[in-house]
Amino acid sequence: MTPAAVVLLIVLVGLASALAWWTAGRRRGGDVELLKAALERLESQNRLLAETQTIGLIGSWEHDYGAQRQRYSDTLLALWGFDPGGPTPTPEQFAERVASEDRERTDGIIESAVAAREPFQMEYRIVPPGGEEKVVQTRGRPFYDERGDVLRLAGTTQDVTLQRAEEAARAQAEELFRRAFEDAPIGMGISKLDGGYGRVNAELAAMVGYPPDDLTRMTHADLVHPDDLGRDQDAMRAMLAGERASYATENRYIHADGHVLWVSFHAVLVRDAHAEPAHFLTHVQDITDRRAYERELRHLADHDPLTGVLNRRALDREIRDHMARVERYGADGALLMLDMDNFKRVNDTLGHSAGDELMVRVARRLRRCLRESDVLARMGGDEFAVLLPQASPASARMVARKLCEGVRAEGLETEGARHAGVTASVGGAPVAAVDGVVPTTEDLVRAADRAMYQAKAAGRDGIVVLRPEEVLRPAPGGRVSPG
Fold first, then answer.
1. Which of 430, 374, 441 is nearest to 402 (CA)?
2. Residues 180-200: pLDDT tens digits?
């Protein structure tokens, strides 16, 4: 109900109550007393009306053309900047306080309403003396005599400055949100509580390859990879339960053409004015290129750039992981160290490019000699290492022999001549418990390295695999010079 309707209802209730009291009094013969009570009740209603007008910043007015007079409530006079206890201002004085840009329009609205014999409503600005500009809303209607001539105009005027300022601020905020939403360089969506999209921006639609209209008929579950969906749904339920305010993750989306893209996904739960869940606001950013770059960086960090096999850093990690499994499930496996014999001569006589080519060929041959579960790494220079996660001392010797044969068989074509002078020395250290003691990672690496140099000292192109007790008991003597 509008403020003007509230005021009119109060007046009508007051008049009806007074009339009812007066009529009832006449029927019972107590005219004077009942009329007095009715007037007191009407006075009370008038006070209530005045208080209501003051609280609601609503003033009432009347222009009586027949009696040539105007009636204004105290609230109306105060609103316009007139003294309620002073002389009654003239209509011209009121008109002077209407903003000059609005005077012609307001006059035209009143004239049209009188001619059409209809109620009118208008908003305009007033400027009270020494005060700030206000926005007011006036509602009124003309009344006519039996000849059809306008008898009077009556209505209400309300101060709506604050409401209009709030509406303008809200409209500005909504426009800012709209621009930020629609023009954002990342995908944005407003999702219903059941996961369906209520609104999406162009960036999100382009990212996943669906037209915006099609996307608003889809749900989050239609886009996210099935393996990632459960985690997202759990987080959404937690937000609805008040257990968390937001959710951020990286997961996979399925593009309209079927390919997978990685996205950074962030969701917040938006609540209404009653603190009830209203919808989810989601931000989605395509990070497929970033993930690929990170994957490449991880590959470079863990792999030898020349041969593509693991490097020393990655091997150390693999050995530590294996030894952790040994502590839990029991000792097994072996570590082999392989050093190429006479490789320096290849670099000196054929050049480093020929040496690099041979290194790549040897790495490829070694990989073919191993199982998929075995770990091959280049330790640097012409030295390789192999971790056999499941191997007895006997099977470790067999693998070491295959590696030697593979290097020996690998040749290098250069200017029509076949060079076959490169061999390998291989040392091995089994992972086995001795009297309940399992070697540490450092024990294993030192022992395999020592065995490899024993193979070199024995004449190269051969293998030495230590016994389990030798892994834990360092042998005397120094290392043999590589070559």
1. 374
2. 888 889 999 999 999 899 999
